[in-house]
Amino acid sequence: MQNFILYITTILIWGSTWLAIKYQLGAVDPMVSVIYRFGLATLLLVLYCRFLKLRMRFGFQEHFFMALLGILLFAFNYWLVYLSEVYVTSGLAAVIMSSIVILNIFNGALFIGVPIRRAMLLGGLVGMAGIGLIFWPEIASFSLTDKGIKGLLFGFASACLASLGNITSARNQKHGLPVMQTNAYAMGYGTFFLLIVCALIGKPFNFDFSIGYIGSLVYLAIFGSIIAFGFFLTLVGRIGPDKAGYVSLLIPVVALVISTLFEGYRWTPQAFAGLGLVLIGNYIIVKKPK
To answer: Is residue 262 within 8 Å of 20, Cβ to Cβ?
Structure first.
């Protein structure tokens, strides 16, 4: 039951962050907004860990893998997502990111010895087909121009980094690293590396003091970063990166449901068929083998 709560809560929170991110776009550069988001999340997580008097001293090797997690999952992954969406639509970016469910299966087998199960592959492929149907209009309008190829490459590189971040988290938990403290350090390392990148390429560090920007920033830091990543990475450690990775297919569905309520998105028969495939794929993955 605990795993089910972690699974559903993660999907609902990250599905809602798509709407929150819209309030982040505008006056502030996206990469700088990511720095603000994870910087605030780091500060709050460290204060929380200190308040609970959790262990915060770790060895060099443990810090190395925390930094690796931060670079993969909280820094360059997000940067590449934003670069991808400069060249392709958000729907197509979601389709590209859905490949993480397959990447987690193979990376899990390659790096931490998780056996490849046919049900995982089948469920992942069925779910990806469903995401493809939901966003088919955007896929059909895609053309292999220089910009389109750049968007595909950036998007797929982001999915690869996110998958490797999932595997790193699973490895860390196998070696006894606690999720809460690990995330605090990893988000801090990720923020630091993004700061270096921003300084090197000359991004302006301005700030938007509007209620929408500040409110969405706080929501993304607390719910989208601290809670959702805490729940998701705990799930990765409990059920494995292959099963946990399926959330990447359900998040766009939740985002579209929210868009239906707040932005007037209209479901087509094709989109409903895609939703059905996503749910079937999810059932195949989470059902217990006989």
So the answer is: no
